Amino acid sequence: MRVTAVLLVLVKLCVAQDNECGVVQMTQWAGQANLRTDPLHNPVDLVIIQHSVYGACTTDEDCEKTVRGIREYHINKRGFTDIGASFLVGGNSKVYEGAGWSLVGAHTRQYNNRSIGISFLGDFRKTLPTTEVLQATLDLISCGVSHNFVAQNYRLIGHKQVVKTESPGTKLQKEIETWSHWVENV
Ligand SMILES: *[C@@H]1O[C@H](CO)[C@@H](O)[C@H](O)[C@H]1NC(C)=O
Fold first, then answer.
1. DSSP H or E run through 28
2. Best substitution site from 114, 115, 116, 162 to test ligand 1's pocket, by max atoms within 8 Å of Cβ?
3. pLDDT per residue as tens digits for the range 40-90
4. Is residue 183 domain-resident?
5. How far apart are CA 55 and CA 69, in angstroms?
6. If you measure from the C-alpha of residue 110 to the centroid of ligand 1, how many angstroms do you get, rounded to a whole number?
7. Could you tell me the CATH number of the domain that includes residue 126?
8. Which domain holds residue 82?
């Protein structure tokens, strides 16, 4: 009986992850669904890369703690409806759901209603995320394209290209400028 229950939960988790590109759902890491409601018109054709500066993490436990902390900060201190980014990528190569594919987040003023904002947890001014973390991000975007959440010919930019900020950090910005979908001007 107990084994069956555990198996059912496992099967359910796997199915949910397959449908959502292997993303750790907010219901899993926050124990609550996203409080946002503004629908994002899919497919979006713009992906914006950012870094969180604080909250670098490498273990599942620390990364969950970080995303919970960012969410609490955004809701309680910044007055946001919910966590700002569409997705957050940890040093453990796991992707955490924020506003997700189909809800308007609060990551890049004037671009929120037409883009996905992906935030790398940590400070990437002088160091790069690992190859695995970068690959997890590219896999996320590819999965978004295959589910038609993101347009096939999407353009990708760094946060600093449209907002006065250092984000996503000099080093990470240089890296994404080598990615095939990167564009200089939106
Ligand atoms: C996004 O919001 C701006 C300003 O309110 C509006 O002009 C634009 O049409 C919106 N874009 C989409 C894709 O909804």
1. helix 26-29
2. 114
3. 999 999 999 999 999 999 999 999 999 999 999 999 999 999 999 999 999
4. no
5. 9
6. 8
7. 3.40.80.10
8. 2-176
Cα 148 to averaged position of ligand 1 atoms, centre (Å): 20
Centroid of ligand 1 to alpha carbon of 112 (angstroms): 9
Mean pLDDT score of the chain, rounded to an integer? 92
How much is the average pLDDT of 8-31? 71
How many domains are there within the chain?
1
How confident is the model over 90-111, as a mean pLDDT?
Answer: 97
Compute the distance between CA of residue 41 and CA of residue 151 in angstroms, rounded to an integer: 11
Give the whole-angstrom CA distance, residue 10 versus residue 147: 23
| Statement: residue 8 has pLDDT above 60 | no
Does residue 185 lie in a domain region?
A: no
Percent of the chain that is helix, strand, coil (3-state, to 5): 35, 15, 45
Alpha helices (H) along the chain: 2-19, 26-29, 60-72, 131-146, 170-176
> pTM for this structure?
0.90
**Residues at CB less than 6 angstroms from ligand 1:** 41, 113-114
Q: Which helix (H) or strand (E) holds 181?
A: none
Q: With respect to residue 108, please indicate whether it lies within any of the assigned structural domains.
A: yes
